[in-house]
Amino acid sequence: MASTNGKVPGGPVLSVEDLAVAYKIRGGEIEAVQNVTFDIQRGEAHGIVGESGCGKSTVTWAILNFLGANGYVKRGGIKFLGQELVGRSSEELRRLRGDQIAMVYQDPMQALNPSMRLGDQMKEVLTVHRGLSDKEAEKRCISMLERVYMPDAANVMHRFPHQISGGQQQRVVIAMALLNNPALLIMDEPTTALDVTVEAAVLDLIAELRRDFDTGILFISHNLGVVARVCNKVGVMYAGEMVEVASTEDIYKNPQHPYTQGLIRCVPKLGSDKASSILYPIRGRVPPPNNRPPGCVYGPRCDYFRDRCREERPELRTLANNVQVRCHFAEEIDPTQWQPSDDLLPPKIRQNGGEEEYIIQVKDLKKYYEVQGSSLKDVFGMSEPRYVKAVENASFNVPKGKTLGIVGESGCGKSTLIKTIIGLEDSTSGKAEFLGLDITGDLTTRTEQLIQELQMVFQNPDSTMNPSYTVGQQIARPMLRFATVPKNQVRSEVIKLLNLMRLGANYFDRLPRQLSGGEKQRVGIARALASRPDLVLCDEPVSALDVSVQAAVLNLLLEVQAEYGTTMIFIAHDLSVVRFFSDYVAVMYLGQIMEIGPADAIYALPYHPYTEALLSAVPIPDPSAKQKRIRLEGTVPSAIRPPSGCRFNTRCPRRHLLPDGGKICETETPPWQEDERGHRIFCHIPRETLLTFEPVIQTKERAV
Amino acid sequence: MLVKDVMTRHPIMVPPEMSAAEAQHIMTENLIRHLPVVGDGKKLVGLVTRQRFAIKPDMMVSLSVWEITRYLSNLTVQKIMLKAKTGEVHTIEATKTVEQAARVMTEQKIGCLPVLDEDGVVIGILSEIDLLRSLQEMLGLPTKGVRVTMRMPNKKGQFAALTTALSQHDLGIMGIGSFPTPRQPDYYDMVLKIPEVTVEQIREILSQVPEQEIVDIREE
Predict the structure, then answer these.
(1) Complex ipTM more than 0.95, yes or no
(2) Where are the alpha helices (DSSP H) in A304-445?
(3) Do B40 and A132 touch (CB under 8 A)?
């Protein structure tokens, strides 16, 4: 309900007061969270952002008493609906919280029991807590599933969790959380594992539910764009402390704390590219809780560091505009006057050379996987073979020293495409040439020299690094294997690479477990570069990293490209990152490239209807931006039986623009419409009509 | 305007086993006057109001100093609450209208109604304060504008005449309420809140409406 006089009726749902959480460890204890204070009113969504290791999740665990055997609330209080939670027995807590607090976590599969039908899991909530009859509970569950826009809700009740998609699983979890009408919903990175299009739909849903159920939401995310879309208040956490608490508008428009300002500078804005803008990573990293600096914890990373910051710990104080900030000099700091300090050199950008020599040329490349059926006919090999058409007729060229970005939802074939190029898979048909050499076969058909020229950077550096090899050994291995460097110079070459990665020679003998996520990814990049390849394929290289580290790794990749003239194919699901990093972009849907061309052309009119939908789903870290709301209906169809004609026709929001409601989209394969800059759109709708669409995103600075 | 639009959702609730002293503490600390008591699955079992904490005088006479301590330490919410089972607690469904709720409260002379869903689960609470807040909103208090009271005979077409007069001058109404004129049968008073306009303008427009008179006009 709208409050009439600024005061929300009934007091806050959750009130955290001067909270400190400590973990007992050998030889003492460490305070993971200190002096955290915030309130959540009814129907309010309070976001918490910050890098990993800042204590965001610890706060939620303290609320739920999930701190584990060695964790405890050291100081302060947590009040839920006016009653103190700290210092109570777990039985008392269970009764007090009852079914009034619900949680939604990042991975829906961990919240769902894989061996139970979804209906049974959901009904349990009502039959156990409320004592409803089975039939009544079933009716409630179905209506709740419909409330979260689950297609075919009655049917979903009989399925197992693995039979529905990730976005749908998360919806089931949210529906389950809301069945008991909780007063507080705690969401810890609820959309991080989802595709942008699904994420947008889930975020819309959360905003709507907050309004309808008056539920207070504590929303934790590292993505500033997501928080801007859902929350009305944001707290920024750094090293276990709240450093700034303000309304969403104020945080994005007028950040007061240097850390908040730094975070916002780290994220590429949608529509900006590497030539016109620079990402400024925050130097250093979050100090471990047992080794926090004296005075201001952010001091060592702050550009405005003065003597007073070292001597005196700043308190969280309220400024004139009702923003709470933990900084001595918040009033004096003007972010528009900010200058990068000397150690933050902007990366060199490779200048556009005149030559347009293609390093890789792909024409009509196909990759089909045969599906093994289970009928008797299949076993004897008598039935028609069926195929998953993972990549269909992919054609593109990448000039030397340029970057091609590939975007699309999960399952659209972007990873298959680069696996085929690098040789982990052979291709079914089509042509692919790398420097004039045929690369349609898999690794067994390739020469060692060819393998050396194509290298890859993976998404998860943890699982691609041998934990028992030192950093130096890992980077040296490709050098020795391909004999690109004489044996006696390997060590100096590795150190040269480490220096380029800003890691330094002392990292040579470290093991992967002694590195942070960002450092591991740098080692991954160094290893890919060790054989001096001409083409590096990057599969989501930054999506597992924090924003400040992401900015640093992106800058590093740019520098590598400037230094060695490496060509890159770059996969990412974050459209702002792809726009920033790439010269050319390909948009894929269900194995088919839908639109390809220079990056600026993809993100401006005319768009393919699918690109338009993707762009409208991107969370933008600017609450004042106007974004068109296009949500795709249904799920991605099966790649075994892709829709006839245009593969996007079953979900296309624009096909009604064509005569007969777009009948042609079902019957005929669309033409490639190409302009003079090489921007190609795979759609029946004429280019002139596509040009009449409104731009998807309008901000004060630019329209995208 | 229905109960579900006006009520306070997710009210503070206590279990029946809680000690009365703690319940009182919760009420004072959170500045609330009513405390629904719920059992498993948030089903209503009773209601505690501030009056329930008063010890009856005849009881006080019979208690000695030593007994008071014991009496108080054994006092649970269950013992002092109004019990739902015996019909001492009046409740309302979320889909009922605000005026129906107000009627129950005035007839029973009570300060609050727990709001239940069809299973007897507490989903909110409706107190006098909530109703008074809805009255303010109905009459458009939060926004600045001209508040005018028109007296009109109880005939068809009177309200239409009033709104036509306003719409001809491109004015909108943001709050409205009407009630029978006290001691004057066959007349109604209607209160309107009109934003972005001056008292003089409204006086000029509305004095033209036949059969009606301006009883009160002010800026608020």
Answers:
(1) no
(2) 307-311, 376-379, 414-422
(3) no
